[in-house]
């Protein structure tokens, strides 16, 4: 359940950024990437379509994702996403251990990693 919730919140955040952050929108220029996040069992799953006009997201499996991340299970996925906020190597470690399988174009994943700096809300400076 927590993995499903994290994916939903991620979808909201990506759509918000696509509407409100000019630097994030620049990252979407000339992109047409469908990234799918799922468990190896296939559920929960959510896909994200990144294109110059913004980000679209739906639950479930996409018919033809550009890149797909299949996590060992929902619990492992949730734990990895928590770690990835502080350590992007968490994904690489999971892939090396065989707990995360990348299917499709790994360049799509590498591009997505460049978006991580936008995803976490910035802390407001104290006056």
Automatic annotation (TrEMBL):
SUPFAM superfamilies: SCP-like. This is SCP-2 sterol transfer family protein. It comes from Alcanivorax quisquiliarum.
């Amino acid at each position: 359940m927590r993995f499903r919730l994290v994916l939903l919140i991620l979808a909201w955040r990506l759509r918000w950024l696509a509407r409100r952050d000019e630097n994030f929108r620049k990252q979407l220029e000339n992109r047409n990437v469908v990234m799918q996040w799922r468990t190896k069992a296939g559920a929960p799953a959510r896909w994200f379509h990144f294109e110059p006009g913004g980000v679209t997201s739906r639950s479930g499996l996409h018919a033809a994702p550009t890149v797909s991340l299949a996590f060992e299970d929902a619990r492992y996925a949730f734990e990895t996403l928590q770690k990835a906020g502080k350590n992007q190597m968490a994904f690489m470690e999971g892939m090396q251990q065989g707990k995360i399988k990348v299917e499709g174009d790994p360049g799509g994943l590498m591009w997505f990693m460049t978006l991580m700096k936008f995803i976490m809300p910035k802390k407001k400076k104290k006056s």
